[in-house]
Amino acid sequence: MTPDEALERAEREGIHRLRIPTPFAVGRVNCYLIEDEPLTLVDTGPNSGKSLDELEQQLRALGRSLEEIELVVLTHQHIDHLGLVEIIASRADAEVAAIDVVAPFVENFGDDIEADDRFAAELMLRHGIPEDVVIALRSVSRSFRAWGARAKVTRPLHDGSDLPLRDRRFEVQHRPGHSPSDTLLWDSDRRILIAADHLLAHISSNPLISRPLDGSDERPKALMTYIASLERTRELPAEIVLPGHGEPITDHRSLIDQRLTLHRRRAEKMFRLIAARPRTAYEIAQEIWGNVAVTQAFLTLSEVIGHLDLLADEGRVREVSDGGLVRFEAVG
Ligand SMILES: [Zn+2]
Q1: What is the 3-state secondary structure (H, E, C) of 43-78?
Q2: Which residues of 296-323 are buried (b: 16+ CB within 10 A; e: fewer)?
Q3: What is the pTM of this model?
């Protein structure tokens, strides 16, 4: 099955892809309209006039209006996916569903983002990112905030539970890693998986380090969590995976295998750098990606720390803290 054929099949099953513009490097975000009862929209696009216009246009092209939406399901906490939720919920009087662990985050959006930024800034300083970069990133993040929104989660979803519509039944699967709240919708009858950013065809999904949703200060091991989630998804007999960006995936097992190989190779590359001499995560990021744009600094740091977690878990590297600055060294 080609990606186009997968989209056609999804359409025949009443799932329509809406490609909503975002101001972010990732480009358009995929939202999915499910023609069923209730009329369901999976993800919304960011909070901007342009995104709202395009969403309404694309709904009209399908013979629908925004006011008809009865249920919005959020796949995870990132602003390109949830920004219009408040506007849709109020204009359409729609229910809002999201995984239970993320409900407080969505309901207090903005307050928590402040704590998220503080968490990220401390992490960056501890791992060697220069202070001016950290300050610049915080202001970027502050300006991004307007593309998000808060909304009351009227229908909390639970991992492993069912989300039944009139003509179909989704199993809700909490598969954190890309973010702490990644939620998949699995239709086992049709073998269709709505996966958002958990698995993307054209780019490896970033296991971003996020502040834990339970409010604890402990740094999550995002890549290890992500790999465990991918391994579970690999077991599903999915024929079509509908992602949050880009084209449908029709061979998720081989794609997941490629991603696992990539992470293994990256971890070994980092191990060689550390074996040569102890380094901070930032030094490793620079060694691998050079001087990336400021906006990418947290992303590459997340990548590096994620892979160092794998190596630490195998007992091959350890963290050494020196006056608040963390370096990684090879063991033995
Ligand atoms: Zn995302």
Answers
A1: CCCCCCHHHHHHHHHHHHHCCCCHHHCCEEECCCCC
A2: bbbbbbbbbbbbbbbbbeeebbeeeeee
A3: 0.95
Q: Who has greater pLDDT, 105 or 112?
A: 105
Q: Can you tell me the distance from the alpha carbon of 216 to that of 96, in angstroms, rounded to the nearest whole number?
A: 26
**How remote is the C-alpha of 318 from its chain's centroid?**
28
Torsion of CA 115, 303, 213, 257, to 10 degrees: 160
**Which H or E run includes 80?**
helix 79-82
The answer to whether 45 and 82 have CB atoms below 8 angstroms apart is: no
Tokens of 320: 């050494």
- Taking the centre of ligand 1 as the mean of its atom positions, its distance from the CA of residue 80, in whole angstroms, is 7
Lowest-pLDDT range of 46-60, 261-275, 282-296: 282-296
Give the separation between CA 180 and CA 102, rounded to whole angstroms: 8
The alpha carbon of 23 and the centre of ligand 1 are apart by a number of angstroms equal to 14
How far, in Å, CA of 115 to CA of 112, rounded?
5
Distance 296 CA to ligand 1 centre (A): 15
What is the Cα–Cα distance from 17 to 8, expressed in whole angstroms?
10
Q: What does the angle CA 96 – CA 99 – CA 102 come to, to the nearest 5 degrees?
A: 95
Band the pLDDT of 304: cuts 50, 70, 90: very high
* Residues, CB-to-ion distance under 5 Å, ligand 1: 78, 197
pLDDT in tens, 59-99: 999 999 999 999 999 999 999 999 999 999 999 999 999 99
Q: Answer yes or no: is pLDDT of 23 > 80.
A: yes
